[in-house]
Amino acid sequence: MKKKFGNKDVWIAYGLILPALLVFAIFMFYPFFYTVYLSFFDWNMIKPVKEFIGLANYKALFADPLMPLVIKNTVEYILILLVLNCVAPYVLAFVLSFVIKRGRGFYKGAFFLPSVISLVVGSILYLWVLNPVSGPAAILAEFLGINIPIWSKTQGLVIVVLSIITTWKIFGYNFIVIFGGVSGVPQEIIEAAKIDNVPLYKIFFDIVLPMSSATGVYIFIMTIVQGLQYVFTPVKVVTQGGPDNASSNIIYNIYQEGFVFYHTGYASAMSIVAMVLFIVLLVIEFRYVEKGIYYEN
Amino acid sequence: MRIESNLKWHILLILALFISLMPIVFAVSTSFKELSEAYSNVLGIIPDKPTLSNYLRIFQELPLNKITFNTLVVAATVTIFKVITSVMAAYAFVYFDFKGKNLLYFILISTIFIPFTMTMIPNYLIISQIGLRNNIMGVILPQLSDATGIFLIRQAMRSIPMPLIEAARLEAAGNFQIMANIVLPLVKPAVISTGIMFFINSWNEYVWPVLILKDTTNYTLPLALQLFVSSEGGTDFCLAMAVSVVTMIIPLGLYLIFQKYIINTFTSSGVKG
Amino acid sequence: MKKNILKAVAVGLMSAVLLTGCGKSDTGNEQAGQGEKVKIEYWHVNAETQGGKTVQELVDNFNAQSKDVEVVARYNPDMYKGLMQNLQAEAAAGKSPAVVQVGWAFLDYFSNNFSYVPPQKVVDDYFPQDKAFLQDNFLPNVMDLAKNNKGEQVGIPYSLSTPVLYINKDLLRQAGLDENGPKTWEDLIKFSDTIKEKTGKYGFYMQEPADNWAQQALLESNGARMISDGKASFASEDGIKAYQAYADMVTKTKSALHISWDQGVQSFVNGDVGMLYTTIAQRANVQKGAKFDVAAISSPAWAGKPKRLPAGGCFLAITAQDEKQQKAAWEFLKYLYSVESMAAWTKGTGYVPPRKDVADAENGLKSFLEENQMMKAATSQMDSVVPWASFPGDAGLQAEQMLLDARDKILSGDVSAHDALTQTQNQINALLK
């Protein structure tokens, strides 16, 4: 399959990768190890002397009463993001591929549109639109006789709304990628199933889902990893983790400890723990996506 | 019956679209209103008394031209660099064999999973020590370490049928010729749309620049937005919306022009099952 | 082809960037050579909608008339908390601006962690002719605001604000209430409930920013103290009573709004809330947006007890590290405290001038105040001004956050004021050890 081109070509290969590698080395790998290093110290970014405290930060992490709440919130975010950005796009892609005949291009284009807009702008827009007392959404709801709850101060609901704002941005991208996977399922199979009067939902679960699983898993993982990182912006702009940490997740908490309280060592330790969780996901991604796919080569 | 049920789906879709695009419409409409009308005529899409004063003000009070230019420079530089290095690296990963290739690829891709909070503090210290704080280069440099480009372009290259390459090799074509005459043209759509996405993402980047840039004249557009959102004095939403619209125009414009490319690339970059 | 054009443009841009980017090092506190102006940085928190324009005007005018000094203004988002964070990050990089605005709540944290020089020292060392400047122009109780708990004069008060009550006179009339508004907190509670009953709209909103300023006014006016002898002491009977009375409006009668600051002010300006308790600095925003008969009155008091209103805003501190910068800083400060500059500052922000005699001066605010009744609500309660409680030591930032969390707990109805305040007080004191 892949030809070997002789040893001199190996140097060419290295040369091609070098520029990217260099940048990574300076701005990714070095900071990564430096953060690991920092996690064993007590520091606030200013003091000239860092105090070595061994595993104390990690111990404090596990004893921190805030951690269970933060982790619970993180899980909630992940679940909601998955439903909105993994399940919903899937269904939508299915509908667009096999149920609706016309307007595909238009829908694809229109749904993807918000993805190109800054999330800061999006957060501010939604702050205005979703003002529970005097925003456009509230006024519309009043016509229908509903009172919008004050979501920015309601536990649980605040996570939902912040997830919705994040969804606004990432739905389009996820949808397009899944659409690619779904539309790769051969039309003939679908047509055959329809002729056999197989109900729509069965077609979805038994045919489409398995055949596009590689894409599905990819988006699943990306939604968790990137979704959490994207959510950071609305949390920072709209609630700053409030009310009473109800909207803070592990990423935001790391930011708060590191850049608001300046507990540099503690924040670093928390980063490592978050990183470990992500690595687990990474291993899954590599197993399923890289191995279980079919390429032309 | 078929037509009826399809209509039901269409209605659902239009409704979903409505919800997702409404905020943008509101933003544009509010940006042309006076502040008092923004509060009293919340739902009105067309302002009763349209005004350009918000736009005039934001350009007067802030060096918005320079800020837009800064944003352009940052986004363009990041894009060019990332596209070139991604193409180079992807080519190496696809068409060469060397020891540790898979391991290296794994490591690079794994960086996508590193939360930015992990690299924020050390990167901030590095940039400060080089003296690039409050400087556009300080904003550009850390953004360059992004593995998604390598991933996407590698996907695209792997879809090129090997026989094509082998045929070229048989005709004693050198590496550079293969790259230039066969591979690049075939992955051009992928490269273009990856580039566009890089550009848009860098354009919208907020978290890192807000840490680094201090001087308003060095700002990028997303940062300029927060200048108008002040809790202490109250947010002038009309001004904020005007800035938002200015921030949105270029990404939107790029998207509308290159829409076909972008959609097609991401549709086929997804892994084919 | 498209790509080629793009590439060419990009190469051009890149070279431009490289040329400018590499040449320009971290601007800021560079030493000027002889005959060149000393460049200093002035850090502020004033967004465009809140004095940012005035800052720039003042800076530009100063630069135009100064022979030796050039000031560069730097905006810090996220208000005083954000500025503190940035200052810390700057110090981590080994640098420091010359003049900074420090929020009152950060007085002690600032003086404990950052390197500054008291203004009087700069005056005594380099400007003997100005020796009496501070003494002559500022009232003692105002200067005291910028003294840390060691009694050291850390800086000079600059922006001064107090909480005032903005009222929607139309709504008050509609509810059959005295359109001049309530004078006591007890009356305010009745007013708020009545507005809710008669009009269906919310009666009251108290600001909920990332600080506890307004809540301090509420508690301390009832006799409580945020800090006593260096320890948190707000969970006293008076404090708990005051907080619970307010919380009841939110949770029991539901006549008060519990929402983020921005949205709360929006709702008032929209006409959906009857009374708004927030800083005088919002005056311009409220006036511009409101389409109803709006007024501002002095803060209510608890019946029979003296008002205690924490001073909002900031003071100016000199964080310049070397002689040239410090001298330049003083020259700039003297300019900022001139009568005309102070007047401009008030007009552009709504803050009350800390300096004596600006309010009555012809070239100061005399005619402005005559026209602008709302400001009177603030200027008339200056004698009730007390320092904004600032928690000492390294834990200052975290203590503030804990109070914010407690506020959310109480206003959500999940925890009583008694429990939340007591618990938070203990937590903070544990940190302060």
Automatic annotation (TrEMBL), chain A:
SUPFAM superfamilies named among the record's database cross-references: MetI-like
Gene Ontology biological-process entries: transmembrane transport
Transmembrane segments: 12-33, 77-99, 111-129, 157-182, 203-225, 265-284
CDD domains given in the database record: TM_PBP2 (cd06261)
Membrane topology: Multi-pass membrane protein
Record carries keyword Coiled coil: no
Compartment(s): Cell membrane
Family, similarity comment: Belongs to the binding-protein-dependent transport system permease family.
Name of the protein in its database record: Carbohydrate ABC transporter membrane protein 1 (CUT1 family)
Species classification: Bacteria, Bacillati, Bacillota, Negativicutes, Selenomonadales
From TrEMBL, chain B:
GO CC terms in record: plasma membrane
Transmembrane segments: 72-96, 103-127, 178-200, 239-258
Subcellular locations according to the entry: Cell membrane
Membrane topology note: Multi-pass membrane protein
Primary location recorded for the protein, binned into one broad class: membrane
Domain of life: Bacteria
Family from the record: Belongs to the binding-protein-dependent transport system permease family.
Protein name: Carbohydrate ABC transporter membrane protein 2 (CUT1 family)
From TrEMBL, chain C:
Domain of life: Bacteria
Pfam families xref list: SBP_bac_8
Keywords: Signal, Sugar transport, Transport
Signal peptide annotation: 1-20
Record PANTHER family: ARABINOSE-BINDING PROTEIN-RELATED (PTHR43649), DIACETYLCHITOBIOSE BINDING PROTEIN DASA (PTHR43649:SF12)
Protein name listed in UniProt: Multiple sugar transport system substrate-binding protein
